Amino acid sequence: MSSIKQNHVLSIQSTVVCGYVGNKCASFALQVHGFDFSPINSVQLSNHTGYKFIKGQVLDADDVDCLYEGLKQNNIHNQFSHLLTGYIGSKSFLLKVGDIIQDVKDSNPGIVYVCDPVMGDNGKLYVPEDLLPVYKDVIIPKADIVTPNQFEAELLTDMKISNEADALLAMQRLLDKGPRTVVLSSTNLGSNGKLVALACSVKNGTKECYRIEMPYLDAIFVGTGDLFAACLLAWMQKDSDLKSALEKTVSTVQTVIHRTLQAAKEVAGSETPTPAQMELRLMQSKADIENPKINFTAQKIS
């Protein structure tokens, strides 16, 4: 009898003591959806890096290998239905994660791996450059679903994305590497300053693509990509429908950030909200994460 649990996620990414990024963010979103959540933390910090002061620890390849070995010795490593990876800060750690992904897939070929290749945003890298070839050659080919932002998609495909046609070409290049679904979580390709999320998937030889516009909010949010990847994982599992999963994921994230900004402004008054005031209002959004109102509709791209 298989020991695999239908909704059990092994998640490897960062965490914080206070606030909501990485595993701290993904755990709540996925547990609300009924998933068991098993985290391995790539770094554990007092708070996210937008604060003035940061304290904490960075795990290395030996640390993650040790934790995984414990799972394997107890025959726990083969019970996961999903893998999720996010921020990883060193090449050696990422290579070890690649080994773990392969080992888990060998034990359970049906596992779904969702990769959020967290490397940077808005033209700026915040991981060492030597992680990029590992993502290209080792990690992305093992992924089932990939959720880069526009800048990360450009890095992974060695091309500039200046319009929607470029974006679709970049997504096809990523699909050609092995994933069956690619979602650009945010791009600046919308009209009138709006952001656009784009999604493409290949199923039974048939390709489907969608776009969805959302407003740009002039504020700094941290953890939105982690929330996006976690919600997409949940809805792709529940709905098995790309359009519906994209709409529910985008609607969820937009509801959370609008609530976050409104609450932060109320506290800050006439001042600019602080990083602490801008922490995602996840607890206050439990009902919206679990059952989002569809405020954003995806359009099919022919």
Account of the protein in words:
The protein has nine helices and twelve strands. It has 302 residues and is of the alpha/beta class. The chain has one domain (8-301): 3-Layer(aba) Sandwich (UDP-N-acetylmuramoyl-L-alanine:D-glutamate ligase). The protein has a ten-stranded mixed beta sheet with strand order 3-2-1-4-5-8-9-10-11-12, with helices on both faces. The protein has a two-stranded antiparallel ribbon with strand order 6-7. Helix 1 (22-32) packs parallel to helix 7 (224-239). The longest helix is centred in the C-terminal third of the chain and has 27 residues, at 242-268. The protein is globular and about 55 Å long.
Features:
UDP-N-acetylmuramoyl-L-alanine:D-glutamate ligase, 9 helices, single chain, 302 residues, two-stranded antiparallel sheet, alpha/beta, 39% helix, 21% strand, 10-stranded mixed β-sheet
Tell me the layout of helices and strands:
Layout: E1 8-16, H1 22-32, E2 36-45, E3 56-58, H2 61-73, E4 82-85, H3 91-107, E5 112-115, E6 120-121, E7 124-125, H4 132-139, E8 145-146, H5 150-157, H6 164-176, E9 181-187, E10 195-203, E11 206-214, H7 224-239, H8 242-268, H9 286-290, E12 299-301
Parallel strand pairs: 1-2, 1-4, 4-5, 5-8, 8-9
Antiparallel strand pairs: 2-3, 6-7, 9-10, 10-11, 11-12
Helix pairs in contact: 1-7, 2-3, 3-4, 5-6, 7-8
